[in-house]
Amino acid sequence: MERKEIIKAIIEHSEYMMTAERQSLQKRIENKNLDSEEVKSVVTNTAKDKGKSLMSDLFNTKWFDLVCDIADTGDKLKNNLDEAKKVKLLGEYLQKTDNHEKALKSLVDLITDPYGLALYSKIINILSDSPADGDILEILSDYLKKLAEEESLQNVFSRNKTILTLIDKCSPQALILLRMCNKWTLVPSPRTVISNGGHVQGDNTRLVAQTFVKNKVIENVDVDDVQMAIYDLEKNGLAEFISGTQKSAPDKTVFVERPTKIGEMVKDAISNN
Questions:
Q1: Is 58 or 217 the better-scoring residue by pLDDT?
Q2: Alpha carbon of 259 to those of 15, 54, 78, 86, 230: distances in Å?
Q3: What is the distance of C-alpha 201 from the center of its chain?
Q4: Stretch 136-159: mean pLDDT, rounded?
Q5: CA separation (Å) from 223 to 116, 212, 214, 241, 258?
Q6: d(Cα 223, Cα 214) in Å, to the nearest integer?
Q7: SS3 sequence of the chain
Q8: What distance in Å separates the CA atoms of residue 199 and residue 27, rounded to the nearest whole number?
Q9: Residue 226: is its pLDDT beyond 90?
Q10: Do residues 22 and 15 touch, judged by C-beta distance below 8 A?
């Protein structure tokens, strides 16, 4: 099967391709049928001869070729999956544009620019380290679309390098929540409030998560996952829990989770508008 056909097959039937490799290797392992006596013999001989390692003895058995094949299969699957992720990312990017020809030319300009190529490579590295799920593809394709529209990649290189570093540190769930910050609601007062310049001290992520779930800020996600997303945003300096007053009620203290200035910058970069 040619490379492009393999990539297409992985995109269309990734689970089938993985299952086929798994079944093939498992069948070969079963056919080898290493019995417990062989393992026992290797261990016994190793104990008697301290000059040999157990690893070396095992590799001199009939399993050596399978160990090598499993390692090769892992490398092959990762490389093929990485290629499929790139194609899916560019496909998502293309779907977000009205003029496909212009979008493709902008992409060519991006990857043939030294600054653009460095940023594109960082995007691909993030994608490689993540599962090929809808969330991270959605986020990175929106980001790629805005990046490809920049007139001078050199002028925005430092800012975008920082943004990509922060994206890499955050979970997809945290980034999705950040994109929805316009829906974030007021939070009830914590039991203990220690405030410094409006910044409420302590860990209030559980309270915020419970409030967001109750008010359906984000749906079909449980409190624990929302709390981890909020904690992720706060840890990376993208959100903060603060207290203050409203113009309509200047005598009443209110509490709210809000994006920081850096959080706003990341949110704008990954938003789809």
A1: 217
A2: 38, 54, 36, 30, 10
A3: 29
A4: 93
A5: 39, 8, 9, 17, 18
A6: 9
A7: CCHHHHHHHHHHHHHHHHHHHHHHHHHHHHHHCCCHHHHHHHHHHHHHCCCCCHHHHHHCCCCHHHHHHHHHHHHHHHHHHHHHHHHHHHHHHHHCCCCHHHHHHHHHHHHCCHHHHHHHHHHHHHHHCCCCCHHHHHHHHHHHHHHHCCCCCCCCHHHHHHHHHHHHHCCHHHHHHHHCHHHCCEECCCCCCCEECCEECCCCHHHHHHHHHHCCCCCCCCHHHHHHHHHHHHHCCCEEEEEEEECCEEEEEEEEEEECHHHHHHHHHHCCC
A8: 59
A9: yes
A10: no
- Summarised one tens digit per residue, pLDDT across range 233-248 is 999 999 999 998 777 7
Per-residue pLDDT, 133: 63
Q: Is residue 82 exposed (0-12), middle (13-18) or buried (19+ Cβ within 10 Å)?
A: middle
Q: Calculate the average pLDDT of the chain.
A: 84
Burial (Cβ within 10 Å: 0-12, 13-18, ≥19) of residue 264:
middle
Dig out the tokens for 75 from the structure. 């490398």
For residue 21, CA distances in Å to 18, 69, 74 come to 5, 11, 10
The tokens 């194609």 sit on which residue?
87
Contacts of 34 (CB under 8 A, 6+ apart): 61, 62, 63
Contacts of 148 (CB under 8 A, 6+ apart): 93, 103, 106, 107, 109, 110
Q: Supply the pLDDT for residue 116.
A: 96
Per residue in 33-52, pLDDT (tens digit) is: 655 445 445 444 544 454 45
